[in-house]
Protein backbone atom coordinates (compact mmCIF):
# COMPACT_ATOMS: atom_id res chain seq x y z
CA UNK A 1 0.00 0.00 0.00
CA UNK A 2 1.35 3.37 -0.99
CA UNK A 3 2.42 5.40 1.95
CA UNK A 4 0.83 8.82 2.09
CA UNK A 5 3.42 11.52 1.54
CA UNK A 6 2.65 14.81 3.26
CA UNK A 7 4.93 17.51 2.03
CA UNK A 8 3.57 20.25 4.27
CA UNK A 9 6.95 21.82 4.79
CA UNK A 10 8.15 21.62 1.18
CA UNK A 11 7.49 25.19 0.38
CA UNK A 12 8.12 27.09 3.61
CA UNK A 13 11.22 29.16 4.34
CA UNK A 14 13.35 27.03 2.00
CA UNK A 15 11.44 28.52 -0.92
CA UNK A 16 12.81 31.98 -0.20
CA UNK A 17 16.23 33.18 -1.28
CA UNK A 18 17.89 34.82 1.72
CA UNK A 19 21.13 35.53 -0.13
CA UNK A 20 20.10 37.87 -2.92
CA UNK A 21 22.70 39.95 -4.62
CA UNK A 22 24.44 40.54 -7.91
CA UNK A 23 24.49 37.32 -9.87
CA UNK A 24 27.89 36.04 -10.93
CA UNK A 25 28.79 34.14 -14.07
CA UNK A 26 28.05 30.40 -13.97
CA UNK A 27 30.91 28.39 -12.46
CA UNK A 28 31.72 24.67 -12.58
CA UNK A 29 31.83 22.36 -9.60
CA UNK A 30 34.37 24.14 -7.44
CA UNK A 31 36.03 21.44 -5.38
CA UNK A 32 37.82 19.89 -8.34
CA UNK A 33 36.53 16.37 -7.87
CA UNK A 34 35.03 14.52 -10.76
CA UNK A 35 31.42 13.51 -10.77
CA UNK A 36 30.52 10.04 -9.61
CA UNK A 37 32.38 7.41 -11.63
CA UNK A 38 30.99 4.46 -9.70
CA UNK A 39 27.30 5.13 -10.12
CA UNK A 40 25.62 2.64 -12.44
CA UNK A 41 25.28 4.01 -15.90
CA UNK A 42 21.92 4.92 -17.31
CA UNK A 43 19.92 1.71 -17.83
CA UNK A 44 20.02 0.42 -21.35
CA UNK A 45 16.81 1.30 -23.10
CA UNK A 46 14.94 -1.52 -24.85
CA UNK A 47 15.45 -1.89 -28.56
CA UNK A 48 13.18 0.46 -30.53
CA UNK A 49 9.98 -1.06 -31.74
CA UNK A 50 8.91 -1.07 -35.33
CA UNK A 51 7.75 2.39 -36.46
CA UNK A 52 4.06 3.06 -36.70
CA UNK A 53 2.56 2.65 -40.14
CA UNK A 54 2.13 5.75 -42.23
CA UNK A 55 -0.04 8.16 -40.29
CA UNK A 56 -3.33 8.82 -42.02
CA UNK A 57 -5.62 10.05 -39.28
CA UNK A 58 -5.15 13.01 -36.96
CA UNK A 59 -5.60 10.70 -33.97
CA UNK A 60 -2.51 8.77 -35.07
CA UNK A 61 -0.64 11.89 -36.16
CA UNK A 62 -1.12 13.41 -32.69
CA UNK A 63 -0.63 10.16 -30.79
CA UNK A 64 2.58 11.33 -29.09
CA UNK A 65 0.94 14.55 -28.00
CA UNK A 66 3.76 15.83 -25.77
CA UNK A 67 6.03 16.04 -28.82
CA UNK A 68 3.85 18.97 -29.91
CA UNK A 69 4.49 21.01 -26.77
CA UNK A 70 6.13 24.45 -27.14
CA UNK A 71 9.87 24.40 -27.78
CA UNK A 72 12.37 25.47 -25.12
CA UNK A 73 13.72 28.96 -25.89
CA UNK A 74 15.96 29.56 -22.88
CA UNK A 75 13.62 32.30 -21.63
CA UNK A 76 11.04 29.81 -20.36
CA UNK A 77 10.86 31.33 -16.89
CA UNK A 78 8.82 34.00 -15.16
CA UNK A 79 10.31 37.50 -15.05
CA UNK A 80 9.87 37.68 -11.27
CA UNK A 81 11.42 35.56 -8.54
CA UNK A 82 9.64 33.47 -5.95
CA UNK A 83 8.51 35.68 -3.09
CA UNK A 84 7.19 35.49 0.43
CA UNK A 85 3.45 35.68 1.00
CA UNK A 86 2.40 36.06 4.63
CA UNK A 87 5.91 35.02 5.56
CA UNK A 88 5.96 31.84 3.48
CA UNK A 89 7.79 31.24 0.21
CA UNK A 90 5.65 30.28 -2.78
CA UNK A 91 8.03 28.16 -4.82
CA UNK A 92 5.37 25.51 -5.43
CA UNK A 93 2.93 28.00 -6.97
CA UNK A 94 5.74 29.67 -8.91
CA UNK A 95 6.94 26.33 -10.33
CA UNK A 96 3.43 25.16 -11.28
CA UNK A 97 2.56 28.39 -13.09
CA UNK A 98 5.86 28.16 -14.98
CA UNK A 99 5.27 24.51 -15.84
CA UNK A 100 1.77 25.13 -17.21
CA UNK A 101 2.95 27.92 -19.49
CA UNK A 102 5.94 25.92 -20.69
CA UNK A 103 3.77 22.93 -21.52
CA UNK A 104 0.79 24.71 -23.08
CA UNK A 105 1.51 28.31 -24.13
CA UNK A 106 2.86 29.14 -27.59
CA UNK A 107 4.22 32.66 -28.05
CA UNK A 108 4.12 34.40 -31.44
CA UNK A 109 5.70 37.83 -31.86
CA UNK A 110 5.22 37.98 -35.62
CA UNK A 111 2.55 40.63 -35.00
CA UNK A 112 2.34 43.42 -32.46
CA UNK A 113 0.65 42.87 -29.11
CA UNK A 114 -2.51 44.75 -28.29
CA UNK A 115 -2.39 47.54 -25.72
CA UNK A 116 -2.82 45.93 -22.31
CA UNK A 117 -3.82 49.27 -20.80
CA UNK A 118 -7.07 48.95 -22.77
CA UNK A 119 -9.62 46.83 -20.94
CA UNK A 120 -10.78 44.98 -24.05
CA UNK A 121 -7.21 43.88 -24.79
CA UNK A 122 -6.56 42.92 -21.19
CA UNK A 123 -9.74 40.84 -20.99
CA UNK A 124 -8.72 38.89 -24.10
CA UNK A 125 -5.24 38.23 -22.73
CA UNK A 126 -6.58 37.43 -19.27
CA UNK A 127 -8.92 34.89 -20.85
CA UNK A 128 -5.94 33.19 -22.49
CA UNK A 129 -4.00 33.13 -19.22
CA UNK A 130 -6.92 31.50 -17.44
CA UNK A 131 -7.27 28.89 -20.20
CA UNK A 132 -3.57 27.96 -19.92
CA UNK A 133 -3.89 27.65 -16.15
CA UNK A 134 -6.94 25.43 -16.76
CA UNK A 135 -4.95 23.08 -19.01
CA UNK A 136 -5.81 24.37 -22.47
CA UNK A 137 -3.33 25.21 -25.22
CA UNK A 138 -3.17 28.85 -26.25
CA UNK A 139 -1.14 30.92 -28.71
CA UNK A 140 -0.36 34.30 -27.17
CA UNK A 141 0.46 36.85 -29.84
CA UNK A 142 2.79 39.80 -29.58
CA UNK A 143 5.36 38.28 -27.18
CA UNK A 144 8.57 36.32 -27.71
CA UNK A 145 8.45 34.04 -24.68
CA UNK A 146 7.27 33.61 -21.10
CA UNK A 147 9.91 36.00 -19.76
CA UNK A 148 8.81 38.74 -22.18
CA UNK A 149 5.10 38.12 -21.53
CA UNK A 150 5.36 38.07 -17.73
CA UNK A 151 7.26 41.38 -17.70
CA UNK A 152 4.05 43.20 -18.68
CA UNK A 153 2.69 44.97 -15.61
CA UNK A 154 -0.89 43.63 -15.69
CA UNK A 155 0.28 40.14 -16.58
CA UNK A 156 2.89 40.12 -13.81
CA UNK A 157 0.40 41.36 -11.21
CA UNK A 158 -2.10 38.66 -12.12
CA UNK A 159 0.42 35.81 -12.27
CA UNK A 160 1.87 36.85 -8.92
CA UNK A 161 -1.62 36.61 -7.45
CA UNK A 162 -1.96 33.06 -8.81
CA UNK A 163 1.43 32.10 -7.36
CA UNK A 164 0.51 33.59 -3.99
CA UNK A 165 -2.86 31.84 -4.00
CA UNK A 166 -1.44 28.38 -4.68
CA UNK A 167 -1.28 26.35 -1.49
CA UNK A 168 2.15 25.32 -0.29
CA UNK A 169 0.54 22.48 1.68
CA UNK A 170 -0.64 19.44 -0.22
CA UNK A 171 -0.84 15.69 0.02
CA UNK A 172 0.37 13.20 -2.56
CA UNK A 173 1.81 9.72 -2.70
CA UNK A 174 5.08 8.85 -4.38
CA UNK A 175 5.02 8.73 -8.15
CA UNK A 176 5.20 5.29 -9.75
CA UNK A 177 8.68 5.34 -11.20
CA UNK A 178 9.34 3.27 -14.30
CA UNK A 179 13.06 3.17 -13.50
CA UNK A 180 13.43 0.80 -10.53
CA UNK A 181 16.83 -0.79 -11.06
CA UNK A 182 18.55 0.46 -7.91
CA UNK A 183 18.10 -0.10 -4.21
CA UNK A 184 18.74 3.62 -3.76
CA UNK A 185 15.42 5.29 -4.55
CA UNK A 186 17.10 8.62 -5.27
CA UNK A 187 19.02 7.01 -8.13
CA UNK A 188 15.75 5.62 -9.50
CA UNK A 189 14.27 9.12 -9.29
CA UNK A 190 17.28 10.66 -11.03
CA UNK A 191 17.12 8.29 -13.99
CA UNK A 192 13.34 8.45 -14.16
CA UNK A 193 13.64 12.21 -14.51
CA UNK A 194 15.98 11.68 -17.47
CA UNK A 195 13.34 9.41 -19.02
CA UNK A 196 10.62 11.98 -18.48
CA UNK A 197 12.61 14.86 -19.97
CA UNK A 198 13.32 12.71 -23.03
CA UNK A 199 9.54 12.30 -23.37
CA UNK A 200 9.11 16.10 -23.42
CA UNK A 201 7.96 16.43 -19.82
CA UNK A 202 9.16 19.25 -17.60
CA UNK A 203 9.02 17.40 -14.28
CA UNK A 204 8.30 19.07 -10.97
CA UNK A 205 10.50 17.71 -8.19
CA UNK A 206 10.53 18.43 -4.45
CA UNK A 207 13.91 18.69 -2.75
CA UNK A 208 15.35 19.36 0.69
CA UNK A 209 18.96 20.36 1.38
CA UNK A 210 20.88 22.22 4.07
CA UNK A 211 21.59 25.20 1.81
CA UNK A 212 18.52 24.88 -0.39
CA UNK A 213 15.94 24.28 2.32
CA UNK A 214 12.59 22.76 1.34
CA UNK A 215 12.15 23.74 -2.27
CA UNK A 216 10.57 23.01 -5.66
CA UNK A 217 12.47 22.70 -8.93
CA UNK A 218 11.56 22.06 -12.56
CA UNK A 219 13.78 19.77 -14.65
CA UNK A 220 13.87 21.05 -18.21
CA UNK A 221 16.83 19.37 -19.94
CA UNK A 222 19.57 16.76 -19.66
CA UNK A 223 23.24 17.53 -20.32
CA UNK A 224 26.61 15.91 -19.59
CA UNK A 225 29.67 16.94 -17.58
CA UNK A 226 32.76 14.74 -17.64
CA UNK A 227 30.72 12.13 -19.46
CA UNK A 228 28.07 11.93 -16.72
CA UNK A 229 24.44 12.96 -17.03
CA UNK A 230 23.19 16.00 -15.17
CA UNK A 231 19.63 17.33 -14.80
CA UNK A 232 19.21 20.98 -15.80
CA UNK A 233 17.05 22.59 -13.12
CA UNK A 234 14.92 25.73 -13.17
CA UNK A 235 14.87 27.33 -9.71
CA UNK A 236 11.96 29.68 -8.83
CA UNK A 237 14.38 31.80 -6.79
CA UNK A 238 16.42 32.73 -9.88
CA UNK A 239 15.80 35.19 -12.72
CA UNK A 240 18.85 35.17 -14.97
CA UNK A 241 17.83 37.84 -17.53
CA UNK A 242 19.53 35.73 -20.20
CA UNK A 243 18.81 32.32 -21.77
CA UNK A 244 19.17 29.37 -19.42
CA UNK A 245 21.78 26.85 -20.51
CA UNK A 246 21.98 24.41 -17.60
CA UNK A 247 23.87 26.77 -15.29
CA UNK A 248 21.97 25.18 -12.40
CA UNK A 249 21.76 21.41 -12.18
CA UNK A 250 21.43 18.18 -10.19
CA UNK A 251 24.05 15.44 -10.34
CA UNK A 252 25.19 12.17 -8.76
CA UNK A 253 28.40 11.68 -6.79
CA UNK A 254 29.27 8.70 -4.60
CA UNK A 255 25.71 7.37 -4.91
CA UNK A 256 24.33 10.63 -3.52
CA UNK A 257 22.29 13.39 -5.16
CA UNK A 258 23.58 16.96 -5.18
CA UNK A 259 22.13 20.29 -6.26
CA UNK A 260 24.47 22.84 -7.83
CA UNK A 261 22.88 26.27 -8.03
CA UNK A 262 25.13 28.40 -10.24
CA UNK A 263 25.82 31.05 -7.59
CA UNK A 264 26.11 28.81 -4.54
CA UNK A 265 28.09 25.90 -3.16
CA UNK A 266 27.07 22.32 -3.85
CA UNK A 267 24.25 21.06 -1.62
CA UNK A 268 23.55 17.40 -0.89
CA UNK A 269 19.82 16.66 -1.15
CA UNK A 270 18.32 14.80 1.78
CA UNK A 271 15.03 14.55 -0.09
CA UNK A 272 14.53 14.16 -3.84
CA UNK A 273 10.95 13.29 -4.81
CA UNK A 274 8.52 13.04 -7.69
CA UNK A 275 4.95 12.68 -6.45
CA UNK A 276 1.74 11.42 -8.00
CA UNK A 277 0.34 14.90 -8.63
CA UNK A 278 3.04 15.30 -11.29
CA UNK A 279 1.69 12.24 -13.11
CA UNK A 280 -1.82 13.67 -12.93
CA UNK A 281 -0.69 16.95 -14.47
CA UNK A 282 1.12 15.13 -17.29
CA UNK A 283 -2.12 13.37 -18.25
CA UNK A 284 -3.89 16.73 -18.42
CA UNK A 285 -1.08 18.13 -20.57
CA UNK A 286 -1.26 15.13 -22.89
CA UNK A 287 -5.01 15.48 -23.33
CA UNK A 288 -4.81 19.25 -23.93
CA UNK A 289 -2.00 18.95 -26.46
CA UNK A 290 -3.71 16.07 -28.27
CA UNK A 291 -6.94 18.04 -28.63
CA UNK A 292 -5.06 21.10 -29.89
CA UNK A 293 -2.90 19.03 -32.24
CA UNK A 294 -5.88 17.29 -33.82
CA UNK A 295 -7.75 20.54 -34.40
CA UNK A 296 -4.80 22.56 -35.71
CA UNK A 297 -3.25 19.77 -37.77
CA UNK A 298 -6.55 18.98 -39.45
CA UNK A 299 -7.04 22.65 -40.26
CA UNK A 300 -3.51 22.78 -41.76
CA UNK A 301 -4.11 19.66 -43.87
CA UNK A 302 -1.44 17.63 -42.09
CA UNK A 303 -3.80 14.78 -41.33
CA UNK A 304 -7.43 13.83 -41.78
Describe this structure as you would to a colleague:
With 304 residues, this protein is of the alpha+beta class. Helix content is 29%, strand content 20%. The chain is built from 7 helices and 12 strands. It has helices at 58-61, 91-104, 119-133, 146-150, 153-165, 185-198, 276-299; strands at residues 4-6, 84-85, 88-89, 105-108, 138-141, 171-173, 204-209, 213-225, 228-234, 249-253, 256-260, 267-273. The strands form 4 sheets. Strands 7-8-9-10-11-12 form a 6-stranded antiparallel barrel. Strands 1-6 form a two-stranded antiparallel sheet. Helix 2 packs across helix 5 (153-165). The protein is globular and about 55 Å long. The model is unreliable at 1-13 (pLDDT under 50).
Secondary-structure topology with pairs:
Blueprint: E1 4-6, H1 58-61, E2 84-85, E3 88-89, H2 91-104, E4 105-108, H3 119-133, E5 138-141, H4 146-150, H5 153-165, E6 171-173, H6 185-198, E7 204-209, E8 213-225, E9 228-234, E10 249-253, E11 256-260, E12 267-273, H7 276-299
Parallel strand pairs: 4-5
Antiparallel strand pairs: 1-6, 2-3, 7-8, 7-12, 8-9, 9-10, 10-11, 11-12
Helix pairs in contact: 2-5
